[in-house]
Each structure stands twice: as structure tokens, then as C-alpha cells.
Write a structure and sequence with these properties.
It is built from nine helices and no strands. The protein folds into two domains: 1-49, Arc Repressor Mutant, subunit A (Orthogonal Bundle), CATH 1.10.10; 59-192, Tetracycline Repressor, domain 2 (Orthogonal Bundle), CATH 1.10.357.10. By secondary structure, it is an all-alpha fold. The model has no long low-confidence stretch (mean pLDDT 90). The longest helix has 25 residues, at 51-75. The chain starts with 8 loop residues before the first helix and ends with a helix.
Length: 195
């Protein structure tokens, strides 16, 4: 059992995720989270000043967990084309795994993401910046044609939205989805390559 003095924000977020999975976002309460941890709800509020703050932190944690590996890929030293492909494949795999392995929790996160659009927008900006880093590297090494880096990065992100935007999650179990992803990738990389 957790005590008030040893309680961490991470423990609270894990418990909140469990409560959200069990009860859904409409019925989950801070009291439920505290009950699972064996502490008072005021102990939870010491880490998160409101239910909204807790839900926002859960959303941020989910986004960060899904994409931690992406940041590492974006700064590797491998060729930009290979790195960008791996970055996109990793993003798609992470989103698909969450959607298909735990559909109830995935639906809950969609609700939380809608509530915390600023958190999601900041996260998307971070991902676009990671793509921009790869694109810039490709341009500097003359592997990619010169273009406005951030505009190009956002275009790559938006062109692949079908494979990472949760609105398309129902289609990610299609047996041909990987083939469709590779077809889109071929179009993108042919547009990026220097002539």
C-alpha cells in the first residue's frame, strides 16, 4: 500500500489510467484513483490541483510514452531517408498497438485528448519539429531537395495522417494497411529526393 509520504505523481498517473480503463472518462473520479492507491483524495490533489489537471497529465503521459522512441530516431546519424521512414513506421506502429491492444483505453484517451487540445497541439508541433530535423539533415547532405523545412515537415506529417491520426484507427487492422503505408511513403520520398 502506498502512503501519503511516498506517493509519486507517476504512481497517481498509473492508477488514473487504470481507473479510466475500468470506468471510462465520464465516471472516473479522483476518489477512485485515491482508493486504488490506498490514500486520501487530498493526497492526489497535492500532486495535481484538480481533476482537469490530472486528466491533462494522463494525456501528456500517454502522448510522451507513445513517442519517446521518435525523438531518438530523429537525432540518429543514419541517412535522412532511412531515418524518416523508420520514424514514420515507429509512429504508426505505436498508434496501432495502442488502438488494437487496448481499444477501451484508446477510446478513453481520445476523449481526454479532445479535452486537452492544447496539449495535443503542442505534441504535434514537437513531432513536426522532429521530422523537420530529419528533413533539414537530408537537405544539408543534399539527399533531399531544398525547400522550406518546417512546411515540408508538416506536409510529411499531414500526408501520413491516415496512419497515425486516431480518426483512422478503425482501418489500422486492415491486412493491407502496411502496403498502403508503403505506397504513401514511396510518394513522399520521391518528392523529397534531390534530383
Amino acid at each position: 500500500m502506498t502512503t501519503d509520504t511516498t506517493l509519486t505523481a507517476e504512481q497517481i498517473l498509473i492508477a488514473a489510467e487504470d481507473v479510466l480503463r475500468r470506468f471510462g472518462p465520464a465516471k472516473a473520479t479522483v476518489v477512485d484513483v485515491a482508493r486504488i492507491l490506498g490514500v486520501s483524495h487530498s493526497s492526489v490533489y497535492r500532486h495535481f490541483p484538480s481533476k482537469a489537471a490530472l486528466r491533462e497529465a494522463v494525456t501528456q503521459r500517454w502522448l510522451d510514452q507513445a513517442h519517446f522512441q521518435l525523438a531518438n530516431i530523429s537525432i540518429e546519424g543514419s541517412p535522412a531517408e532511412e531515418r524518416l521512414h523508420r520514424w514514420l513506421v515507429t509512429l504508426f506502429a505505436a498508434k496501432r498497438k495502442k488502438a488494437l491492444d487496448d481499444p477501451e483505453l484508446f477510446a478513453t484517451y481520445l476523449t481526454l485528448a479532445a479535452e486537452n487540445s492544447g496539449t495535443v497541439e503542442a505534441h504535434i508541433d514537437t513531432m513536426v519539429d522532429q521530422i523537420a530535423h530529419i528533413v533539414q539533415d537530408g537537405m544539408e547532405k543534399k539527399d533531399f531537395r531544398l525547400a522550406h523545412i518546417l512546411t515540408t515537415a508538416r506536409a510529411v506529417f499531414e500526408a501520413t495522417a491516415h496512419f497515425h491520426d486516431p480518426a483512422h484507427a478503425a482501418e489500422w487492422s486492415d491486412p493491407r494497411v502496411d502496403e498502403r503505408f508503403e505506397a504513401v511513403w514511396t510518394l513522399i520520398v520521391s518528392g523529397l529526393r534531390a534530383k
